[in-house]
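Figure 6 in text form: structure in, sequence out.
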């Protein structure tokens, strides 16, 4: 079977160093060799966030599938495509109902019934987790309010889009980026603050110190 490989990293630092891209590509090449797949091409999306499906490399890969130049797409891990439940639904309905999706680390091959089942279960679990986090957040805030805690105005993280912003900030910080670098990345990729404005290092620091530990850790516990 002919397949297209797709690799992505989210920061310019990773893109310039090329380490993560190379590691993903090597996994894909080894996988293709092991399972006797004809790897037509490996398409890169350097410095591209998973926030949107409108990435040059991804659109090129999907176009090749639609043009019949390959029958499947191979990725190193599912989150290289997207972390959004809505985007997963769109990809499955628009592309992977007709073409195969193979994920190396997740051991998913949608050519089989078992592979399709696992993919759908993972997407459903991700949706459940997001909804459950939202419910627990609401309960926690209501409890704090009942105890007389002044909550102030609404903070980032009350919608799926805002939670995606928090996850992105946490991911960038985990990669060792400075507050200034994270700020530049958020502004460059169109992420907005709660009020729709620009980001500043102080705002990012507040998220990391006060918001992210509550929204992404305590609430999910």
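Output sequence:
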């Amino acid at each position: 079977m002919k397949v297209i490989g797709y690799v992505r990293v989210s920061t310019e630092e990773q893109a310039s160093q090329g380490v993560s891209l190379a590691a993903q590509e090597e996994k894909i090449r080894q996988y293709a060799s092991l399972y006797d797949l004809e790897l037509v091409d490996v398409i890169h999306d350097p410095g591209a966030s998973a926030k949107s499906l409108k990435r040059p490399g991804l659109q090129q890969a999907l176009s090749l599938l639609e043009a019949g130049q390959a029958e499947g797409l191979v990725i190193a891990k599912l989150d290289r495509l997207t972390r959004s439940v809505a985007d997963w639904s769109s990809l499955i309905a628009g592309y992977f109902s007709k073409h195969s999706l193979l994920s190396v680390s997740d051991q998913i091959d949608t050519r089989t019934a078992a592979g399709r089942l696992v993919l759908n279960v993972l997407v459903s679990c991700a949706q459940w987790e997001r909804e459950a986090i939202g419910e627990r957040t609401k309960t926690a805030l209501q409890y704090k309010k009942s105890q007389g805690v002044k909550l102030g105005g609404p903070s980032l993280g009350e919608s799926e889009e805002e939670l995606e912003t928090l996850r992105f900030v946490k991911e960038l910080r985990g990669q060792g980026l400075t507050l200034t670098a994270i700020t530049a990345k958020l502004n460059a990729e169109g992420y907005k603050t709660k009020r729709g404005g620009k980001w500043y290092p102080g705002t990012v620091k507040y998220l990391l110190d006060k918001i992210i530990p509550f929204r992404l850790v305590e609430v999910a516990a």
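Caption detail: The longest strand covers residues 38-45.
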